[in-house]
Structure formats: C-alpha cells, structure tokens
Amino acid sequence: MVDPRVTDAVRGGGVGVLDGRGLMRLADARALLAGATAFVRGDDADAAHTPGGFVLTSDRLWAALLSLADGAEFVQVATRLAWEFHPRGFDNIDLHLRYGDAIVPWLASRVDGAGALHNQPWCVVPCLLACGDAAAFELAWRIARVDGSPLDLLRAWCDRHPAEAARGLAARRPAPRAVAHLTALGWRRPDAPVPPPARPATASDILGHLDACALELTAAPVRAWPAIGGTRDRTPHGFRAVAARAGDDWALVIERVEGVRAAGVQAARVLGFGFGPRLPGGAAQRPRPLRLDGAPAAGPAFTAWLRARLADDAEAVLGPPAAALAPLGLPDARVVAVAWPFACVDPRVRLPSASLEIRALAAALTDDAAAAPLSPGA
Amino acid sequence: MSDATILEALARAGHGAFADDLRAALRPGIHLTATALAGRPADWRRADDEEEGDDDDAGDDGAPDRVAAFDAAMAALPLGATRFGGLPDLPPGAAWPERDGVPMEFIAQFRLDELAGLDPRGQLPPSGALLFFYNAQWAHSDMEPDAACCAVLFHAGPVSELVRATPPAVEWQSEFSDTPQIAPFVHGLAAVTAAACTTAPGGVGPFVPASLKEVYQDFTADQQRLYQPGGEDAPQNHLLGHVSGQDYVDAQQPDDQLLFEISSDDAAQFQFGDCDSLYFILTAAELAARDFSRVRVYQQLG
What's the complex ipTM? Predict the structure, then answer.
C-alpha cells in the first residue's frame, strides 16, 4: 500500500474504486494519460461533483500520474506532458511520497539551459527539496536560480539533507561555491558531517568563507557583508580592508565609512565587517567612532570635509589598521595587508572570490613570508 | 486609580459584595505619564536604498531636522533621567544588549530614587537605575521561552556613573521583511512623570479572585471605560501592580510579578509591530533578589 496521503490524492481525482495498491487501476491510469498531451485544469463544465468534492480534469490526471507502475514510468509520461496547471496544495509532495527520489529526472526536465528551475507545476521545488539522494544533490547543485523566486535552492536543499550535502560539496572542493556552501553548512548545522576547516587555511578556503558571507549563507540574522550603497546617513564614503593573521587563524575586516553628522545619534562612524574562523558564524559587525575633530556639524559641508580628510590622510580619520581588529575580538592579530581605498564588491554582481583585490588579500593571508605590510599605513 | 475608585467601580457594577475579595487582590503600582520631547530620528528600514522622507536630512534645505531635534533633546536630558525612548545611559562597562548580534531596542530608563516614595511595598530597589530593552526580532517569551527576548539592566550605584550610549548600527535581515533594517531602532524621546496608583488584575489571569471569575470581565470593561486614567484608550504605562490586559497566553504564574507595562505611547512614538503593549514580567522572588536576568517580555497577552 502507498502512503495514505497519496491514496487521499487519488480519491480526490474521483476514483471510486481503488486497486490493491490504494491507487487508480494501472490500466485506467495508463489509458487516461495516453490521451493527454498536457496537464491542464480543464473546464468547469467537465468537472464532476462527487461526495468528496469538485473533481477537475487536473485532479483526474493527477490521480493517474500517481498510479503508474513506478518512478521510471512516471518520468517518461510526465516529461512528455506540457505542464499548464498545478496539483492541489501549494507544498504538494505527492510525487515524492509515491515514487521517492526516482522523480529526479523529471524534476531535472524543469531546468532550462541557463540553469533556471521553473517551478511549474508548483510541486517541483517542494519535491526537489524532499528528494535526498546524490542525484537530487547533483540537480540542486546545477540550479542557478528558481525562476521568479528569491529562494536559494542549494542552501535550502543543504539544510534539508545536510549529510548528503556535505558529501556532495566536499567532493567539489576547492570550487569556491562548494567551499562557500560547505563552510556555511557547518555554521548553520553543527551536526552536519562537514570536514573541519583546513589549518592553516588555503586561499581557496578564505575565498569560500568570504563568498559564504557575501551570499548571506550564515545562520545569524545579522548581515555578513557590507552594502556598497546607501542613502542619507548610510551613504558610504569609502571602504578599507585590513587582512591579519594570528597563528594559523586569519581575519579580514572590511570597514565601511558612513554618516553625515559629526556627533549625535547618527554620528558618522566606521562599521567593521569582520570575517574569519574565530568569529561565531564566521562573521560579525562592529561599529566604532571616527576621529572627527574640527569637522562641520552636518550636511554637505561635513561630507566634503570628511571625504577630503579621507583622501588626504585616511588613517587620521579611521585610526591605524590594527584598530579595526580589536572591536571584533581579534586584538592579537598581526596586520599583513591593508587596502585603501578598497573596491568592495556587490555580491549581487560579483562574488568576493572573483575580485582580484580580494584574491590578493587572500593570498597575502596565506603567505607565510608576508612579514611586511603590503601597503603603507599598516 | 485608587483602591476606592476600583471598589466603587465594583459596587456600581453590582458586585459590591465581593469587595473584600477584590481588595485582597489589588496591587500598588506606579502610573507613568509621558510627554513628548523629540520624535524618532529615523524611520524603520534605514538600510533601504530607497529614499523615504526628506525631513531627516541634515537640515541644510530648510526642512525640519528631526535628527538635530532629537540630538538637542537628548543633550538637554540630565544623565540618568527617567524617560521613555531616546538613548539609554548604560551602566559603566555594560554593552548594549543584543541577541544573535542584533542590538535590542531601548524602551525606557528609570531613576529609582525618584520612585522610592511611590512604592509602598519597597518592591523596587530604592536607588540606582533600571533600563528596559526589547528584542528587535519580534520574539516574545510565550513563543520562545528560552530566548533572550528582552533585557533589563540594573545599576545599583549613583546615576552619575552611567554612560550616555551611542547606538550601534547593525544591518540585519528580519524574516518578516524583504529589506534589511538597521538595529537598534531608536524610538522618540519622552519625559515621564510618575504617580502612585492601585491596579486590579486584568480580566483573565491567575490573580482574579475565584469569587469574581464569572463577573470579572464585565467589571474590568466598565472599570477601564469609566475610571481608567485618561480614558479607556489612554496608555496604561506603569511599573509594578497587575497587567491591565487579559492573559490568554498563560504568561503569568501565581508567583509572578509585573515589573513594567508599556503601551504604544504616541509621546515616544513607540511602535511594537501590530501590538499595543509590552509586558515585562518576573517572579516575585527574582524581584526581591534584584535579579533581573530572567525577566520575560510579552507583546500582548490576548
């Protein structure tokens, strides 16, 4: 017998007499689907009023699709159909309940050439998230985005199936995307069999860590990557990056200078975004005040003053690079590289691992010979 | 409200025979009335790239500068002064409370030596300062009983030791919003005056006398409509006493004590989501021990 929920769905298709499996008779299912070219809702005029409710064409087709011999036959039939409508229930996983992970090849047919998954019918995403085998991971890995949805499908899949995800991601290292998701999975799911980070970290490990933060794959609600834009008191005046080492540990702090006032509740400040293995969840935000002696109180005059001071002598305003480390709990770290001005990346456009500047910082963090700062002021 | 007013309300509702039962359940409280000093310096989602109003710009275009007005009002406020909203004066060495890296909202601060004469049972510490923070992630203690949904800081020393805080500004992503927000949200600033009062238990809860259970909701409805200070819809902000709402979520146990009830008072431009009040509750034993580390907060009780 199949899962009772599947039987309920088959009954919802107006099937009065069930077979020994609790489904529509196989011959009936095959006959019904043989004449179908599309999964359609059907006209109300064709609907049947039964004691169980209003039975649409889609309900009958769904019952038939759930009643085939096995997953292979379902994939063959479902892949042939044009999907113009949906089964009942927004988070419908009937197909997975009936056929298990054997439906993955059909789910794969919903991915276009650009890697976009089309959630039509709307059970595609719930079913893919329900499938937990290696083939399902392969498919989740291949999907770049869900069409019309902000869902990060790979992240969601990893959270549902952490053990299989850890295996699949580990096999794809050192690809930065795999390192990013593997690292972040370890933060979100400490019970997942994620291999411990390499010590000392490789440049690829560092870039994956930064990509994970930029993609907001962390567990904490605090944003892990600085926004490159903003208005009013959030307008950025510049960024500085400070790379530091403490034994085998590394830290990168990206400082964002913001604000349009010299004092008060919205006083200009530097907001430090710290990254590294010592920080819980891999990242943390900490603000600290700027040195604004002699600055105009507010407005364009303040902004002009601040930007001129930053251009002339950034350290006079920001403090020495080491000052970026203490508020993030890294007082013993040794600064190995500083980038000012620093071209912070917008992860929506480009990930940190694709930035030459950040790659250089990662290289500096892994260079044991880096005894001297890479730029003045460190 | 006084004992006599509450008992008069009971009698007018036709239940005067139960006066002794109700009198035994009354608790003294400290009623708090707020007067606006400055509006909030910014709107909710300051991390948006979209422009909101322009009136919080730097004041160079002739528009009202609400940030400057807020800063001026804060600067005029003596260290340790009792207030709703604004910025806190933190105990020396204390960090701004946070949860999961997200700073909490500052709600209120009380200078306790000014309240001692209004606390006949001596429930509050006689001196020092008490500060209330609320978890900006909207969680409350009936939904997350083990989470840090609020923080109450107690400074036992002189208020001159307090430190006027600069708010952190942390970008975070609420599960209830598509756009990032800046935490902590800073509420408007209001001065507070205090007066002794008597409170009756809310309409549902463990403190309602058994003899009155059948008629209590009718009584409290009349009481609030006819006798509540400022009228039925006025903010019922108070320290100690009973919660004024009905406890449908079993927030309170018989050995609990309300520490602070605060409404969405316009004077401080408070905004607690779609809820009208916050209730900070602890056990009577915790209050007696001056242990504010386990205070719970509820957004609404019904």
Answer: 0.81
